[in-house]
Amino acid sequence: MKIMIVDDEKLLRNGFKNMTDWSAKGINIIGDALNGEDALEKLKTISPDIVITDIKMPIMDGVTLTKKIKELYPHILILVLSSHDDYDYVRESMKNGASDYLLKASIDIDDLCDTLKRITQDSQKTSLYNSKNINIESVKLDFSIDKTKIRNYLELQQYDVLKEYVSTILKLSSPIPVTYMQDILRELFFFIEYTLDTLGSIDKGLKDSKYTNSATVNSISTLQEAITWFNSTIDEIIKSNINHNKKHTEIIKRINTYIEENFATSISLSNIADKFFINKNYLCDIYKAETNSTINDYITTLRIDKSKELIRDTNLTLTQISYEIGYQNTSYFNRVFRKKTGISPSEYMKLYR
């Protein structure tokens, strides 16, 4: 599988190239470019199977690049990388022929490789917004859907309220041509999937089902069928969220065990993210959601608890204790200890020695 990387940040391009042993995964990165215009120039001399491109870039962005590639090289597959607030750009890229998207903040190597494999296998299938059934007129109906409300319902997991809201919208939009109703449902599903992704609450199974869901919409011909389809889709999301949360719980348990065994070393958030092949920002999000704390807080708590134990039960000096729990700077250890306990390590020592 030959890949080309397009991103205006040199650091990201280089990081992408070095994030894993690509050849061991059957992938060859044959080129990179710093924007869409640069990519089109290089595509004259190289022929990748897949272009992975950032959405926002100077001179020519990922949306325009997607459109140009599909016009000039329709056989090339495109995977777009987006930030949390890029929904409209991603949707436009999908309409222009992109095969899929990944959030930059939550990329991990396994997810990326799975996505590359899937879009290659699905290259003959119709992508979500490249279907002939999508009618540009559906955009005119988009005003009736309050995306802020939908995002809030998803964030608060108010699924029954969401079902009722969408049911009301569909009823108010009726009677409308069947194809328009199908377009509304596709738009809703894509927005919901993207929103859950940005919230870190989407299971891989749900992401993989986007093509199936888009296809099943084609069979809808009545208002009641549309409502039933949407409600069953939400039920599927609820189920996938339960599975997703279970996976998060297992990951957090493993991370906490690793921290407990290594907190006295030079452990850091970056070390842990690398160890578990998880994007650092994504790791922070799921850890906070699961524990209502941060990884750094947990490391600090373990270190200070251990330092108290060493002060009480040994004759080690404070400098020795500082090194023993992973702090190379005694002054910093003193500050952290006081902040955590309200007294200095030496004051604590006087209570027990």
TrEMBL record:
Keyword Nucleus assigned: no
Xref: SUPFAM superfamilies: CheY-like, Homeodomain-like
A Pfam family reported for this protein in Swiss-Prot or TrEMBL: HTH_18
Segments traversing the membrane: none
Sequence ranges assigned to domain Response regulatory in this UniProt record: 2-119
Key words, A-Z: DNA-binding, Phosphoprotein, Transcription, Transcription regulation
Sequence positions bearing 4-aspartylphosphate: D54
Residue span, HTH araC/xylS-type domain: 253-351
Keyword Transcription regulation applies: yes
InterPro entries cross-referenced by the UniProt entry: CheY-like_superfamily, Homeodomain-like_sf, HTH_AraC, HTH_AraC-typ_CS, Sig_transdc_resp-reg_receiver, Tscrpt_reg_AraC-type_HTH
Superkingdom classification of source: Bacteria
Function: May play the central regulatory role in sporulation. It may be an element of the effector pathway responsible for the activation of sporulation genes in response to nutritional stress. Spo0A may act in concert with spo0H (a sigma factor) to control the expression of some genes that are critical to the sporulation process.
Protein name, as recorded: Stage 0 sporulation protein A homolog
